[in-house]
Design a protein that fits this description.
Keywords: Membrane, Transmembrane, Transmembrane helix. This protein is of the alpha+beta class. It contains 13 helices and eight strands. The strands form two sheets. It has a four-stranded antiparallel β-sheet with strand order 1-2-3-4. A four-stranded antiparallel β-sheet has the order 5-6-7-8, covered by helices on one side.
């Protein structure tokens, strides 16, 4: 005997329950799923290359210490370090070509001093020749090409360029910017989908096939998503196109990175004229390196520091801290070469907020901010991204039940989004795409192509239905 409720027997239309209303998320979820699926599908090869090369770069810091241990360290720690001027003189005697562009005194008891020479024949113009000097004996322990403000030596430089542009120059940088532009989108969409699923936290034990792959993909992706978003945001800060837009925004907000005024007359406005590099030639210009270093020490600039000789007769020495690990030391001073007096001081504490965040973000991205733990975290993130890509392609294959290609997701997801939600969403995407062009342009191209393919499929379906109707008549 079956029991029925009164409502089930009432044939009056007024008594019928209203259809359930679809929430905003139920209409957005197919769109987010389609975005995550196709973005992951087509961007994944670029992300795979970025992850693999990024993993190598994160490991290159420790590898550099092992490969170049002879140049970077001394055999015996002496009782007293020699004056900087004597160490530079020894380096110049061994390598008289070029000009002294900077000097980094030995920052630790067992570390060598670096004397950087620019304009040396056979050395790339964008790099310097670093001469390594024993601070206790003034013995030259070797010379290597050096690149960038982090002092990357040949091994790390090669891996850095491989990660940044695949050794293809400016054209190659588009790959890394493309990957960084989409990484946060894919990670964010995946995170939303994972936590919106019922039973997303269900244990994987006992599951098989695509469900198990999905569980592994979602769990690892959820744990690593915040790191991916951070890597994406920090990577874009010095990219070609998005980076330029970010820099323009910082300029308009007055948040650019200041630099100490290197004018011998001072000024104290942190204009930074000539502060980027010293090419004046004689490192012993004026009062000399030792007095300049003493003046900087008196202002509280502890190791590690870099001394930049005057760029010309009207410029001052610049001494700046170069420690990017926590706590960050980035103070700098200008020293008059004729008197040895400090003419300008710039403290990292006085940097604008966005300048500080940019410095910390870049150093975090490159593995410098927290040293070895930072580098291990980057390697784990890179390995996680590689696994997620492999699992993602496996799910695509499993979705097609073993066919050569997985089944695509159905079209028309955006048509189910209410206009009140779709219009502001499109406006936000347009603004974002303008500031991050390697996100906006490919997205617009995909939408246009998808619309064309959808129209073609629609016409074919309509033609088949018409042919079927004629055949059946």
């Amino acid at each position: 005997m079956t029991t029925t409720s009164p409502a089930s027997t009432d044939e009056s239309p007024a008594a019928a329950p209203p259809p359930p209303r679809r929430g905003s998320w139920s209409t957005l979820r197919p769109l987010v799923l389609r975005l995550h699926f196709y973005a992951g599908l087509f961007v994944a090869p670029f992300l795979l290359v970025a992850a693999a090369t990024g993993l190598l770069y994160a490991a290159s810091f420790q590898a550099e210490k092992l490969v170049y241990a002879h140049e970077l360290t001394v055999d015996d720690v002496g009782e007293r370090k020699l004056p900087i001027s004597e160490q530079v003189a020894a380096a110049r005697q061994a390598h008289p070509d070029g000009t002294v562009s900077a000097v980094r005194p030995s920052p630790e008891d067992d570390a060598t001093t670096r004397v950087m020479l620019s304009g040396v024949e056979g050395v790339d113009p964008g790099r310097t020749l670093a001469v390594f000097v024993d601070p206790y004996t003034a013995k030259v322990r070797g010379a290597l090409e050096q690149y960038g403000s982090s002092g990357a030596l040949p091994l790390r430089t090669w891996i850095d360029e491989f990660h940044r542009d695949l050794h293809l120059g400016e054209t190659g940088r588009l790959y890394s910017e493309f990957a960084a532009s989409w990484l946060w989108v894919i990670a964010g969409a995946g995170l939303v989908l994972w936590f919106s699923r019922r039973g997303a936290r269900r244990k994987l034990r006992g599951t098989t096939g695509r469900r198990r792959t999905l569980g592994l993909h979602g769990t690892v992706g959820a744990w690593a998503a915040a790191g991916f978003v951070l890597l994406s945001a920090t990577g874009l800060t010095w990219s070609t196109y998005a980076g330029a837009n970010i820099e323009d925004l910082r300029v308009s907000l007055g948040q650019t990175t200041p630099s100490v005024s290197a004018s011998a007359g001072g000024g104290g406005e942190h204009a930074g004229h000539g502060a980027a590099a010293g090419t004046g030639g004689d490192a012993a210009h004026g009062v000399g390196l030792d007095k300049v270093l003493s003046a900087a020490r008196a202002e509280g600039l502890g190791d590690p520091v870099e001394i930049v000789p005057p760029a010309d007769a009207s410029s001052a020495y610049v001494v700046r801290q170069v420690q990017r690990s926590w706590p960050v030391k980035q103070d700098s001073v200008a020293v008059d070469p004729s008197t040895g007096e400090v003419t300008d001081v710039l403290r990292f504490a006085d940097y604008p907020v966005l300048a500080k965040l940019s410095r910390w973000g870049i150093d975090l991205h490159t593995g410098s901010l927290f040293g070895l733990p930072n580098q291990i975290a980057l390697m784990l993130l890179a390995a996680s991204l590689i696994l997620l890509i492999v699992w993602g392609y496996r799910m695509w294959w499993q979705r097609g039940r073993g066919s050569a290609f997985g089944r695509p997701l159905p079209r028309g997801a955006w048509q189910r989004v209410p206009p009140l939600l779709l219009v502001p969403l499109l406006a936000a995407v347009a603004v974002l795409g303008y500031f991050v062009p390697l996100l906006g342009i490919p997205l617009a191209a995909f939408v246009a192509l998808d619309a064309v393919l959808g129209e073609i499929a629609h016409r074919r379906g309509r033609r088949k239905r018409a042919d079927g109707a004629v055949a059946g008549s």
